Structure to design on (216 residues):
């Protein structure tokens, strides 16, 4: 599907093309974020089992569904952004920005975001979700869904800029997709994850400046 979309970059998109692009992003986001969400999901499941809650597997599924729902929403926005870039003739067949200035700006903006207090706060939440689970606990399937959405929103605040970097390095480039997934996982679970996030931000700003300079 990704290769087929690449071949259609010189043609106007139909509604089916937009739908396929959304599906591509949704599958990619679920695959990238499910691994990093596994620790908090397992923690949530363990707390439910310890409470002896009835039907706890369904409740845990609801929590996971709420989390993924947030990223599916992001996928819809990413697909629309990709469509807009295509209409503006700013997207290459490899699904990267064809403008070095735009590509550099995306990298610089993502790098700056990595250094902001908001990114730090969201990353702190993702690295230590126990406090969130204890303070915002909701019983039942509907409560688990709300908790999953809330946790997914923090995760989105932590990682959305990294996902946007794919527009600069290649949405179809599976090497970069894997690299971003690994970076997200390291940020969330490694002992020095917060430091890695800041180092990645500096690296992206530097890379963005170099890319921008090629357009001068």
């Amino acid at each position: 599907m990704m290769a087929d979309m690449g071949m259609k970059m010189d043609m106007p998109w139909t509604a089916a093309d937009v739908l396929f692009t959304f599906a591509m992003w949704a599958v990619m986001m679920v695959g990238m974020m499910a691994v990093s969400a596994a620790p908090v999901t397992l923690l949530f499941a363990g707390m439910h089992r310890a409470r002896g809650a009835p039907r706890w597997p369904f409740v845990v599924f609801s929590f996971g569904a709420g989390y993924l729902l947030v990223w599916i929403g992001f996928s819809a926005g990413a697909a629309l952004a990709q469509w807009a870039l295509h209409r503006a003739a700013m997207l290459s067949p490899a699904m990267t920005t064809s403008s070095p200035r735009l590509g550099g700006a995306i990298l610089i903006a993502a790098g700056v975001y990595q250094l902001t207090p908001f990114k730090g706060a969201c990353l702190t939440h993702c690295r230590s979700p126990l406090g969130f689970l204890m303070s915002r606990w909701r019983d039942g399937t509907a409560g688990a869904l709300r908790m999953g959405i809330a946790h997914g929103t923090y995760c989105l605040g932590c990682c959305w800029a990294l996902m946007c970097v794919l527009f600069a390095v290649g949405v179809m480039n599976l090497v970069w997709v894997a690299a971003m997934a690994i970076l997200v996982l390291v940020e969330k679970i490694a002992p020095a994850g917060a430091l890695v996030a800041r180092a990645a931000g500096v690296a992206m700003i530097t890379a963005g400046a170099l890319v921008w300079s090629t357009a001068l």
Observations:
- The two ends are 35 Å apart (CA to CA).
